[in-house]
Amino acid sequence: MNKRLRFATSITVLLVTTALFVHYIDVHPSLVTQLEHVSPITLLVLLTLTCTATATLTLILHYSLHLCNASISVKENVLLSIYSSIINFFGPLQSGPGFRAVYLKRRHHINYKDFIRFSLLYYSFFAFYSAAFLFGPSLAWWQASLLLVFVVLGCLVALRYKHILVSKLSQPNVIKLALATLLQVSLVALIYFIELRVVDSHITLKQTIIYTGAANFALFVSLTPGSIGIRESFLLLTHRLHHIPNTVVVGASVIDRAVYLVFLALLFVVVIGVHAKDRLGINQVL
Asked: What is the number of structural domains in the chain?
């Protein structure tokens, strides 16, 4: 019953958000005119960067698996990342990680506790970088430092709760996982910077970094496919930090969603073209 309620909530939030988007664009017709002038080259660059940012997930999974003395082939890693990215967008409550957990358990006998541990480590790095992006440029140094200390302490408590010792955080694969996560967050920031500059050429890199931190935190409470509506709400609520006008936020979000839908369409073509479902043995695993 709880799953049905959460699924119904996700659909409701998605429908309400879509209606609000349509209404907002209807009230601001100049936004559509502005978006029509986005050059094909810019869209191609954004699509390439989106592919690259998603490719970092293969690095993250690679180093994560090494932490529990496991590994999968590069080809399988890529196919699994592609397949789970599609599920993560269209499935309820960002279900991509859950799919990977079941797949790795049944195909490679990686138990759920190990999966949760290395996933928690990745999310800890992700949370730290996002907090640094959100608060670092926008607050006084002592305020930002204090908040980052709280984030680090919270992550360490969570890791200790899952029996991940602090002494093990200096392992080479942990450091590589941290760097891969930083690469992912940085690529996302670059994507947002281009999208924001398309709508408003006066947007600065500092504003984009804060914007990226806010957008990333929305993923932790996502209820809708692709965090639609949730991310935009976070960005609008943190206006006092990044000072980006609401019209620019909406315009950049429209571009971002459009590019990502094209990207997902390409992933579908790849999945069908290489028979990813059969290669991964999804029917036998699930």
From this structure: 1
Distance separating alpha carbons of residues 281 and 242, to the nearest angstrom: 45
Q: Specify if 20 maps to a domain.
A: no
Domain that holds residue 99: 42-285
Is residue 257 within 8 Å of 228, Cβ to Cβ? yes
**What CA–CA distance (Å, rounded) separates 62 from 47?**
24
The alpha carbon of 81 is separated from its chain's Cα centroid by a whole number of angstroms, namely 13
Does some domain include residue 23? no
Residue type, 223: L
217 occurs within a structural domain: yes
CA distance 181 to 123: 9
Please give the model's pTM, rounded to 2 decimal places: 0.82
With respect to residue 9, please indicate whether it lies within any of the assigned structural domains.
no
pLDDT 10s per residue in the chain (286 long)? Answer: 455 665 565 556 556 556 655 655 566 565 566 667 788 899 999 999 999 998 999 999 999 898 888 889 999 999 888 888 887 776 555 567 888 888 888 888 888 888 888 888 898 889 889 989 988 887 777 777 787 777 777 767 766 655 565 545 557 888 899 899 999 999 999 999 999 999 888 999 999 999 999 998 887 766 555 556 677 777 888 888 899 998 888 889 888 888 887 888 888 888 787 766 667 766 665 5
